[in-house]
Design goal:
About 80% of the residues lie in helices and about 0% in strands. The protein is mainly alpha-helical and about 280 residues long. A two-stranded antiparallel ribbon has the order 1-2.
Length: about 280
């Protein structure tokens, strides 16, 4: 498992174009936010102290959730390449257990996803500070990193299952384009969830990576919300969290950190098992 993971990571970081492409959705979202979305979001919320800091923190948290998907997708492109070049058949001939093979690809995707997500976190914090915000407190850093690890773990399992079904470079490229296009909507970055129709809101609420976004947002917007909502009612604060996807509502029930963590853990286990089943069938 470790040998396969090490080999995959070397191949990934050796290809600079692959690394850049893994950040493409992040660059697009950030560019749209700077050029268009930022002004749109600010016009939709009451003007208050630190509102720029609050919205910058909100969108950067969403970008971190997106990175967990796009980075692992780029990393798992190696598996599709191995399949098209029949390298997987060589692995089949070797005395490698199926779960070790799956684990090797997942471990490399997870590691690459974590590295790129941490780089994104540092760049996001630098951007927030340059725009007049503040650095995350030390405890908040640890919380965000913990949620990033969980987000990447769940994302790598989902993306691995998707890529395990692909058999060509063209299908992988098409899938990557679709995921890169939809991921901003599915995590509620382009349009806050409170502004969307109810059916679309439910799509976001049941999408596992959206729960990662909610967890990271809950930490990153905590400090700026203290300034922006100083003296505001509890109802106003709760409504803002609902509208911006910091908290999700299911009927009369509100999501909690425990629920979001359970969703991500369950997603990881489910898609890991599904991936083993698919890989076992394809390498017979």
């Amino acid at each position: 498992m470790n040998i396969i993971a090490s080999r995959n990571m070397k191949l990934f970081f050796r290809d600079r174009r692959n690394v850049v492409m893994s950040f493409l959705s992040v660059f697009i979202i950030l560019g749209l936010y700077i050029l268009f979305l930022g002004d749109t979001l600010k016009s939709g919320v009451p003007d208050s102290p630190g509102i720029g800091f609050l919205l910058d923190s909100w969108v950067m948290a969403g970008i971190l959730a997106v990175t967990s998907v796009t980075a692992t997708l780029g990393a798992l492109g190696i598996m599709v390449e191995d399949r098209t070049q029949n390298i997987l058949k060589d692995f089949k001939a070797a005395p490698i257990k199926r779960y070790d093979l799956v684990g090797g690809y997942l471990l490399s995707a997870f590691t690459i996803g974590v590295v790129l997500s941490l780089v994104t976190l540092v760049l996001a914090e630098i951007y927030i500070v340059i725009q007049g915000g503040e650095w995350l407190p030390l405890v908040a850093w640890f919380k965000v990193i913990g949620f990033i690890l969980l987000s990447v773990l769940a994302s790598s399992a989902i993306v691995f299952f998707i890529t395990s079904l692909l058999n060509s470079r063209n299908s992988f490229s098409t899938t990557g384009t679709i995921i890169g296009t939809l991921i901003g909507f599915l995590t509620g970055i382009y349009i806050p969830i409170g502004s969307l129709p109810e059916p679309v809101q439910w799509m976001i609420k049941v999408f596992p990576v959206s729960h990662a976004g909610a967890l990271i947002r809950s930490v990153m917007v905590e400090r700026p919300m203290e300034a922006s909502f100083a003296g505001a009612s509890a109802e106003a604060v709760q409504q803002f969290k609902l509208d911006m996807g910091v908290v999700y509502q299911y009927g009369d029930t509100f999501s909690s950190a425990a629920l979001s963590i359970a969703v991500l853990v369950g997603t990881t286990v489910l898609f890991y098992l599904l991936s083993i089943a698919v890989m076992a069938r394809k390498t017979r």
